[in-house]
Task: inverse folding
């Protein structure tokens, strides 16, 4: 679970800005089921974070900052000679390093990982285990202005020749040392702590963009009958008109795979680099679970019951955007019911009815118990500003200052009565983070004068 995430000099964030998921002690007794204890402390982590803001205020840039950090851990900068960062461009600090600093809970231990990066290289990098107010460094890395990488780590030097040698060499200047460890040492030979941390970034931290899905739905449901049943029940309960889902699949040859997919994507699927791919018409091609040389073309059909007892099936692409968006997010709820994980959904309200978004959050909070489950979302949907659903410290706002830099702050910073209508006062502008529409009113006045 994320405890805190800090970023500076990235996209619309200029000064260091922190999203803290540490619960405020001011709200003891309010939604206690939303809290997870932090080891070696008297503090707790919040299970939910909901982030508001006007268009262009920086909500999605917080999502992108975490996305960039994850990329630098699991994929590196790719073939780029530089780091691919995107600094704040409206001031004089664009040439200064960007900061990414994450503290998280994993296997009942707290870790802090982060780095500073400029256009050419990773300037600094650190990984530590946090115990109460103390940190025990696992490694610290610095890169000189000439590009020489130096890693200090008594921890790595005790782990055998490969880990120690890599600490001595340091790795490429433009990629994180954590990625260097992942890409150089075989996973079965990697130290268990490092493997757990890298796996946390790869599998536990899931980021879902507005137009993206959780994963290949066809392949996911083909492997899991219970997933298809759960999704069918949720769609039916949400009054989408869909009564059930059907999975159609047919075996296809390697030759047909190459015809249906772009050449590079087909090659990656056939080589085993990726488990699935999507065709232009939205169908999935997946590697068969029990045979790496067999491929299935999968279509999801939505079944609608008719008044006379018959039924009719539609391609999923024929359903509304809202139904498709909901279907792509339902596996999040199922995964969080049965497993640990953190999901960050950008624009959760995209194409979805306000009441459905509210119910989605409520379902997670009521039906996904457990110590390592967390849901972060960005939204414009003011219907969620409900203290019957959320705690005040679970609600965040983004707003730009006069310099065009995003600022992030929590509702917990405001002194408000328990019976206050948060939604009404937010829409009136009391907490900021809403668009200023006065200029549009003036445009209307001018248009009326011309008419």
Result:
């Amino acid at each position: 679970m994320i405890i805190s995430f800090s970023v500076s000099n990235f996209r619309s964030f200029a000064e260091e800005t922190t999203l803290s998921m540490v619960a405020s002690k001011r709200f003891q007794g309010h939604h206690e089921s939303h809290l997870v204890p932090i080891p070696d402390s008297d503090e707790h982590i919040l299970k939910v974070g909901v982030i508001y803001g006007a268009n262009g205020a920086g909500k999605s840039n917080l999502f992108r900052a975490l996305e960039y950090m994850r990329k630098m851990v699991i994929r590196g900068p790719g073939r780029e000679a530089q780091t691919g960062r995107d600094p704040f461009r409206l001031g004089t600090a664009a040439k200064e390093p960007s900061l990414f600093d994450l503290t998280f809970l994993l296997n009942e231990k707290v870790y802090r990982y982060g780095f500073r990066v400029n256009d050419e290289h990773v300037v600094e990098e650190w990984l530590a285990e946090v115990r109460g107010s103390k940190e025990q460094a696992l490694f610290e890395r610095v890169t000189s202005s000439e590009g020489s990488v130096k890693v200090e780590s008594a921890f790595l030097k005790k782990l055998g020749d490969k880990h120690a040698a890599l600490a001595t060499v340091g790795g490429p200047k433009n990629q994180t040392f954590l990625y260097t460890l992942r890409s150089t040492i075989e996973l079965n030979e990697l130290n268990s702590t490092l493997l757990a941390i890298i796996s946390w970034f790869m599998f536990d931290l899931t980021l879902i963009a507005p137009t993206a899905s959780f994963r290949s739905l066809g392949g996911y449901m083909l492997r899991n009958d219970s997933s298809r049943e759960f999704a069918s029940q949720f769609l039916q309960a949400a009054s989408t008109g869909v009564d059930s889902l059907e999975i159609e699949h047919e075996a296809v040859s390697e030759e047909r795979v190459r015809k249906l997919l772009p050449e590079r994507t087909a090659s990656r699927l056939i080589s085993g680099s990726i488990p699935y791919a999507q065709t232009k018409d939205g169908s999935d091609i997946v590697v068969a679970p029990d045979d790496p040389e067999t491929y299935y073309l999968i279509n999801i059909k939505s079944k609608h019951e008719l008044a006379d007892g018959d039924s009719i099936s539609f391609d999923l692409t024929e359903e509304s955007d809202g139904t498709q968006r909901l279907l792509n997010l339902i596996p999040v709820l199922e995964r969080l019911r049965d497993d640990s994980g953190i999901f960050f959904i950008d624009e959760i309200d995209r194409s979805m009815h306000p009441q459905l978004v509210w119910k989605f959050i409520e379902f997670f909070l009521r039906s996904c118990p457990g110590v390592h489950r967390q849901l972060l979302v960005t939204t414009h949907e003011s219907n969620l500003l409900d203290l019957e659903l959320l705690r005040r410290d679970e609600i965040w706002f983004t707003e730009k200052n006069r310099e065009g830099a995003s600022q992030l702050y929590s509702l917990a910073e405001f002194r408000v009565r328990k019976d206050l209508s948060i939604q009404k006062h937010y829409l009136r502008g009391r907490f900021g983070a809403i668009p200023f529409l006065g200029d549009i009113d003036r445009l209307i006045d001018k248009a009326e004068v011309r008419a």
In short: The longest helix spans residues 321-338. The mean pLDDT is 88.
